[in-house]
Structures are given as structure tokens and as C-alpha cells.
UniProtKB/TrEMBL annotation:
Domain ABC transporter: 2-233
PANTHER family listed in its UniProt record: LINEARMYCIN RESISTANCE ATP-BINDING PROTEIN LNRL
InterPro entries: AAA+_ATPase, ABC_transporter-like_ATP-bd, ABC_transporter-like_CS, DrrA1/2-like_C, P-loop_NTPase
GO molecular function term, any single one: ATP binding
This protein's name: ABC transporter ATP-binding protein
Pfam families per UniProt: ABC_tran, DrrA1-3_C
Keyword match Methyltransferase: no
Signal peptide stretch: none
This protein's UniProt keywords: ATP-binding, Nucleotide-binding, Transport
Protein's UniProt keywords contain Transport: yes
């Protein structure tokens, strides 16, 4: 349905995105992951025809959207990372304003407003000013705006940032439902790996302006098929203990989060004895040590050297 071919964007002497190749099949939910500064937003801006690429092409049903941007704009909905609403207007007034921008009129616009308010669960708050809404409600209305013209493709750029768990779950279920019931194609970026695990059929991982890996969840996890992920829980993450792990020549990655230390090593290497030795040398109290099956977070750490939320 949508194909991205050798897409690049250069600002002065630096590439924000370079040689991007992706495809979206009709009815898929595709994850686009990458640490901050990886080039995701630039790529999304080029896909949605807001930014003209330096080179490459985006093809919708084999026709260039660079040459004919109106073709993608008609069928594309975009949920931006930042809230894009008029806070001094009500939910209904926002939907009417943006609906008219989409050239919806009369009975069709009225019907779509009713349908969208129901989809995003804000029918009972339709007359309330947006400035009285919680962060989660604003996010849901932001999604509603992108749905007004019944798009075939929707790009969602971190739509659950900074909201409560209940609103987050509502948004995830809404995305799943739109995809299942309407066959809507979704490109989804997130800083929450569990969202990607729940939603996405295939995943692209970006770093430093390049796509560095792609595939289904299982295909990506197979990248670490020759490695073990060891989860270590400690009473306190002693700096010396971490330094000893990082200095070991067979250790490929070390990630520290509070009292949890994750280590990636080759499968043939038994690190348990070294872990005990390093803990004793550094005065670190071990609570537990276990080998885990590789997760998407482990793959991301392995490929980029950073956790997704870093």
C-alpha cells in the first residue's frame, strides 16, 4: 500500500534520516522505534508530505506522493506527538473546525462528529472546553481529529505520552479496534515497548537516521538467539559492580534500572561464577540471578546501546 524507497533528508551538512526503506501493507500495524534523535519524526514528516525529502521517494499504490502529495493527504490521518487542539473551544467545536478543514460539510460532518465522539469515548463531554480536559482526554480528542475524514492510513506519533494508565489502555484498545473493524493501516511510534508488543505486526528500529533492523517480533528476538539475557536483582546497584561487569570482555551489554541489572552475553559463556565474584569484590548484595528469554527491549538495547526510553 505504501512504500518508502531510499528516503533521505539532509539539513546543512547532517542527515536527519538517510536511505530509509520501509513498506506498509494494507491492514497492518507497524511499529517505528528508536531513541530520541533517531530520525523518526523526520521520517514521519516526509511520509505525511510535510517535509520534502532530499532524495528518495514515497509511493502510494505505486504512485509518487512527492510529486502528487494530495493523494496521500486525502487518505492519511496524523496524530502528532504534541497536543494540537484549540483549548478555548469545546470538543465538538474542535471536531467541527478540523472537519471543515478536511472539507466535510453538512450532514456528513455532523454524522462523523457523532461517530468519532463515540469512538473516543467523549460523547458526554462534547460541550466542555478542552482546557478543562485531563491529559488523557486531550490525547483521545487529538486522535478523534485524525479520524474525522475516515483515513485509510493513520500515523500515531507517541499518542500515549504523559497520560494515566486508564486513558492509555483506552487508546490502545481503540487502535486495535480501528485496525480490526475497519482494516485501518497504522504506523505507530512509542517509548513504551509493551505497547509495541501488544499492537504491532511488524517493527522497524531506527538509530542515527538509519533503519538498523526490521521484522516481526519473533524475527527480531531471533537476533539474540545466540545470546543469553541475564537478569540480576541487587539490594543496591553498586557502581563498582557495574564497572566490573562492563569491563568483562564477554559481556556485550549492561543495562541498569534501579535495582535491576540486565546483562547480555553469548550463550556458550557461563557468567554466574563471575557475577558472584564481582558481587563479592564490590560488596554488592545479590537478591536473584536468572536467565531470561530475550525480549524486544533486549534486542533494542543490543542494537542501539540504549534503552527505548533513554
Amino acid at each position: 500500500m505504501l512504500e518508502i524507497i531510499d528516503l533521505s533528508k539532509k539539513y546543512k551538512q547532517k542527515f536527519a534520516a538517510q536511505g530509509i526503506n520501509m513498506f506498509l501493507e494494507k491492514g497492518e500495524i507497524i511499529g517505528l522505534l528508536g531513541p530520541n534523535g533517531a530520525g523518526k519524526s523526520t521520517t514521519i514528516s516526509m511520509l505525511s508530505s510535510l517535509v520534502v525529502p532530499t532524495s528518495g521517494d514515497v509511493r502510494l499504490m505505486n504512485e509518487s506522493t512527492i510529486k502528487h502529495p494530495q493523494n496521500i493527504r486525502k487518505i492519511l490521518g496524523v496524530v502528532p506527538q504534541e497536543i494540537a487542539l484549540y483549548t478555548d473551544l469545546s470538543a465538538e467545536e474542535n471536531l467541527r473546525f478540523f472537519g471543515e478543514i478536511y472539507r466535510l460539510k453538512g450532514a456528513e460532518l455532523k454524522q462523523r462528529i457523532e461517530e468519532v465522539l463515540e469512538q473516543i469515548g467523549l460523547t458526554d463531554r462534547r460541550k466542555d472546553l478542552v482546557k478543562t480536559f485531563s491529559g488523557g482526554m486531550k490525547r483521545r480528542l487529538n486522535i478523534g481529529v485524525a479520524l474525522l475524514h475516515n483515513p485509510d492510513i493513520i500515523i500515531m506519533d507517541e499518542p500515549t505520552v504523559g497520560i494515566d494508565p486508564q486513558s492509555r489502555n483506552y487508546i490502545l484498545e481503540t487502535v486495535k479496534r480501528l485496525n480490526k473493524e475497519r482494516g485501518m493501516t497504522v504506523l505507530y511510534t512509542s517509548h513504551y515497548m509493551e505497547e509495541v508488543e501488544f499492537l504491532c505486526d511488524r517493527i522497524y528500529i531506527m538509530d542515527k537516521g538509519h533503519i538498523i533492523a526490521s521484522g516481526t517480533k519473533e524475527e527480531l528476538k531471533n537476533i539474540l538467539s545466540s545470546e543469553n539475557t541475564i537478569s540480576i536483582k541487587v539490594e543496591r546497584a553498586n557502581v563498582e559492580f557495574i564497572q566490573l561487569l562492563e569491563a568483562d570482555s564477554t559481556v556485550r551489554q549492561v543495562k541498569v534500572q534501579d535495582r535491576d541489572v540486565t546483562v547480555i552475553v553469548p550463550k556458550e559463556y557461563n557468567l554466574f561464577q563471575k557475577i558472584s565474584q564481582f558481587a563479592e569484590e564490590s560488596g554488592t548484595a545479590l537478591i536473584s540471578v536468572e536467565v531470561k528469554a530475550p525480549t524486544l527491549e533486549d534486542v533494542f538495547l543490543h542494537l542501539t546501546g540504549r534503552a527505548l526510553r533513554d
